[in-house]
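ARCHIVE CARD
Drawer: 12
Card no.: 0347
Subject: one protein chain, sequence and derived structure
Cross-reference: see card 0346
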Amino acid sequence: MKKSALFPLLIIFLYATSLIAQSNTESKREKFDPSKDPFSDLKTAVEKAAKENKRIILDVGGEWCIWCHRLDAFIDSDEEIKNFLTGNYIVIKVNFSPENKNEKFLSQFPKINGYPHMFVLEKDGKFLHSQDTGLLEKDKSYSREKILEFLKEWAPEKS
């Protein structure tokens, strides 16, 4: 086979490989699911948080939200942030979309001005803090320092 014929095949192979890798990365990410019941999810999270001495983060957003995807990818790409988050918090994804705005559930918390948005709850489910994630942004991504500062400020005291 001529070298000129191999080049297009190489391009197609590389493109297909990148699509598969992107698909695999995307499928690992927990999605915002309009069919989930946040009341039930919170009840389960409270039970788990009490046993593990963790706080709860409600991550409010939707699959339509590019910044929600960016935040998930940012956290997933940083081992220190990811480990601190999972070591100190139970995270619940709360969907907000045209299919399900979860208005009844979200009405018990302060008003949200943009997405994604995070609420920090005590292990018993008591509201502690409302976090505008826009304040954690840097350029077209997020600030590692600001996210770590936020997570450390609201982490539970370990005995």
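Annotation on reverse: The two ends are 68 Å apart (CA to CA). The domain at 31-154 is CATH 3.40.30.10 (Glutaredoxin).
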